[in-house]
Amino acid sequence: MILRTIRRVHALALAFAVCCGSGARAQDPVPGNPSLGASEEELFELIDDEEATVNVAEMLSWLHENPIDLNSAQREDLLSIPGMTGEEADAILHSRESEGQFASVARIRRLPGGEEILGRIRRYVFVRRKDTGRLEDRIPTMVISSRLSGFLPGTALSPDPWTLGSHAKSLSRMAVRLSNHVKLGLLFEKDAGERFRDGFSSGYISFRGNGAIEQILVGDFSADAGQGLVLWRGTDAGRNGGVAGGIRKSGARLLPYHMADEAHYLRGGAIALKSKPSSLYVRCVLLASRTPLAATVNEDGEVTSFYSSGLFGTAAELEKRNSVHEFLAGTRLECTLQGRGTVGLTYYRSAFDRAVKPGSCFGFSGERSQVAGGDFGVALGGATFFGEIARTADGGTSSIAGVVMSLDSSVRVSAAYRNYSTDFNNPHARAYGVQANTTNERGVSIGWQLALGQGIALRGYADQCKIPGSSYSSFLPHTASDLRVEITALPAADMRLSLALRIRKSEIMQPKPGCSSHVQGDLTKSGVRFTGRMRITPHLEAKTRIEHGAAQFAIPNQVDKGTMISQALSYEGRGTECECGVTFYETDSYDVCLFDYEGNLRGAVPSPPLYGRGSRWHMLVSWDSFPWVRLAVKYAVTLRERNPIARELGVQAEVRF
User: How far apart are CA 72 and CA 89, in angstroms?
Assistant: First the structure.
C-alpha cells in the first residue's frame, strides 16, 4: 500500500509538471551547485527552539521577497541571512572593495568555500546595476505579501471553540523602497482564534547614509551585539550548519523589524555613526526604546511571568497583553583594525513600569536591569579568536571564548568554552547554550568540517555542559550533552546523499513509579536520518527521507521509538513550482515525535511534528509567471490511525509595484 500511494503521488506531480511545463523553460540552475535545495532544510533541522524556528522561517520569507543587493549591502545586511558567518560576510565585502562591484552572484564562487556559500545564499541575493540616473533606477518600489492559512473544520486539530475570533491565521507585510537610502515597512499579523482588532501591528522607517551617519531607524527594530551576552534581540538560527555550529555569533547588527514575533523586538529609535574609512574604523550605535510586553500580573500589580507565545485569542490571554512596558537606553562602540580584528563595548540600562517578581526562582527579577560587556574578534593566520564577558549591576557575570581555524583548505575546526553564572539574569541575553536563558550553565563545544575528497564531506559538533543550579527541567545540578555527526556525498552531479546521527542526553525530573513524588533521571534522545536527493531532469527533483528516533528514560526504564519514511517530488519551471509528498510515520509517544521538512508557503514553518501512527500528504503549487505577482497554494492532510486529524489549507500572494 505504501508503494502504491507513493506511485500515485509521483504520477500526480508528473502530470501537473507536464501540463504546466509545456512551452516553459526551466530556470537556469547554478552550474555545479551541490546543495540541490537542501540548505534551508538543514538549517531548520539544527534549530531546537520552536520560537527560533518561526523567526527563521519569517526571515527567509522576507529575504525571498526583498533579496539583498550585493553591490550596496552592508555587513549587517549580509549577516541577516540565517547561517551567514562574519567571515563569509567580510569575504564578500572585501571582494567588492578589491575587485569592484559584482557583475553576477556567481563571482562568490571565487571566494574560499564559495561554492558552498553560494548554494546557501543564492536565493536571497542579487546584483543591481550601478545607479545610472535613469527613471527606472530612481522610481520607488513596493512589495506587498499576504498569507492566509488554517485548519479546516471537522478534524481533531480544529481551532479551540472558546477563542473570540476567526480560526484563520493571516499575515500581511509591505516593504517600500523610496530610494537607495530610504526604506519603510509595515506588518500586520493575526493568529488563529484572535479577533482582527487584536492582531499584531509593526512598522519602521530606515535611512542609510554615505557619510558619518550610517543609519537611522525609527519604529520597530532589532539590535545585536557581540556574542549575545549583553544584547541580542534579532533572529537566532541556533546551531547552524557551519563548522562552529552556531557557537560564534556574527557581531553587531542593527536591523529593521519585519517579523511576527511579538516578544523579541525594540520599539523606539536608533542611530549608527561611523568614522571615515581608514586602517582604524570606529562605529557607534545609540538606541532608545519603550516596548510593550505581555505578562501575568498578580493582585499586587507585580509581574510574575512574561508571556511570549503571541497568542491572544481568549479573554485571559488578552489581559496579559501590553500589561507592562520596558524603557531601554543603550550604546555600542566598536573599533575595527583592518586585517586584524574588532573590539567592542556594549551597555544598556532598562526599567519596567511594574516590579518583575517571577513566581519561581528562575529568571530576572526587580524593576531595573543594567548590563555591560566587552567582546573581541581577532584574526591570526588561519585562526579567528573570539569572546565576550558581561556583568550585571548585581554582580552576575558570564563569559564565552573560542576559536575557529582552518588547518588547510579541507579542514576547519572550532572550540569554545562558556561560563554563565547562576546569578547572571539578563532578559536581553541570547548567547550560545543548551538552555533558552543565558544563565546557570558551563560547557565546552567543538565543531569540525572535513572535505574528504571525491565529493565526500564530514561535519559535526559535540557539546558537553553542566547545569550547576536549579533549572526548569530539574531542581538538582545535572549535566547535558549533544553530539551530531553528518556525512554527505555527491556520487554524481545530480545526486546528493547524507547520513546524520544525533544523540542528546540530559537529566530531568520524572515521576517516581507508584507515588506522587519526582526523582531526577537520565533522558537520552537519539536519531539517525538518511536523506537522498536526485535531480531527474532540469525540471524534476526527487527526495527520499528515512528517519528513526528513540527516547530512553532511566526512570522508569523505558524506551520509546519512532520511524518515518517520506517521499517527495518537486517540479520547477519558468514561472511554476510544484511539490507533492507523502509521509508514513509510527511513534510510541510524543517524546519521540518526528519532523518532516516539507515545502511550505514562504514564512510558514516547514516541519510539522508527527507522532502516533499514520500518514501525511501535501501538495504545494506556486505561480510566478508575471514579474509583478506571485501566487501560492498549499493543501495538506494528516491522518492518524486512518482518521484525518488535520486538513490544512493556505494561500499566499505577493505583488510588486
Answer: 13
Asked if omega into 556 is within 30° of 0 (cis), the reply is yes
Average pLDDT, the chain: 82
Question: How far is it, in rounded angstroms, from Cα 535 to Cα 543?
Answer: 9
Give me the pLDDT at residue 160, please.
62
3-class secondary structure per residue, 599-641? CCCCCCCCCCEECCEEEEEEEEEEEEEECCEEEEEEEEEEEEC
| Beta-strand relationship, 125-126 and 68-69 | parallel
Separation CA 180–CA 137 (nearest Å): 9
Please give the DSSP secondary-structure letter assigned to residue 647.
E
Distance CA 118, CA 536 (A): 22
Are 87 and 79 a contacting pair, CB within 8 Å?
no
Give the integer Cα–Cα distance in Å for 65 and 59: 10
C-alpha cell at 64: 525571498
DSSP assignment of 466-523 equals EE-S--SS-SS-EEEEEEEEEEEEEEETTEEEEEEEEEEEEEEEEEPTTSS-EEEEEE
The band of 157, judged by pLDDT with boundaries at 50, 70 and 90, is: low
pLDDT value at residue 250: 72
For 216-241, what is each residue's pLDDT tens digit? 999 999 998 999 999 987 666 555 44
Select from 353, 351, 328 the least CA-distant residue to 267: 328
Contact 553, 510 (CB under 8 A): yes
Instruction: Give the number of C-alpha atoms closer than 13 A to the C-alpha of residue 555, restricted to the C-beta side.
Output: 16
Listed residue (473, 611, 605, 596) closest to 546, CA to CA: 596
For residues 29-50, average pLDDT: 52
C-alpha cell at 470: 536549579
In 3D, which of 296, 404, 307, 385 has the Cα closest to residue 340? 385
Calpha distance 271→244 (Å, rounded): 31
DSSP 296-317: EE-TTS-EEEE--S----SHHH
* Cα 627 from Cα 634, distance rounded (Å): 21
pLDDT value of residue 513: 55
Find how far residue 57's CA is from the centre of its chain.
6
- Burial of residue 277 (CB within 10 Å: 0-12, 13-18, 19+) is exposed
Q: What is the pTM of this model?
A: 0.84
What would the pLDDT profile of 128-156 be if each residue is shown by its tens digit?
765 544 444 557 889 999 999 988 876 65
Confidence at 123, pLDDT banded by 50, 70, 90: confident
What is the mean predicted confidence (pLDDT) over 397-405?
93
pLDDT tens, residue by residue, 470-526: 766 666 788 899 999 999 998 988 899 999 999 999 876 555 555 555 556 778 999
Q: What is the Rg, in whole angstroms, of the alpha carbon atoms belonging to the chain?
A: 25
Contact between 225 and 172 (Cβ < 8 Å) = no
What one-letter code names the amino acid at 299? E
| CA separation for the pair 109, 112 (Å, rounded) | 8
What is the chain's percent helix, strand, coil content, to nearest 5? 15, 50, 35
CA angle at residue 149 from 145 to 151, to 5 degrees? Answer: 175
Residue 513, beta-bridge partner list: none
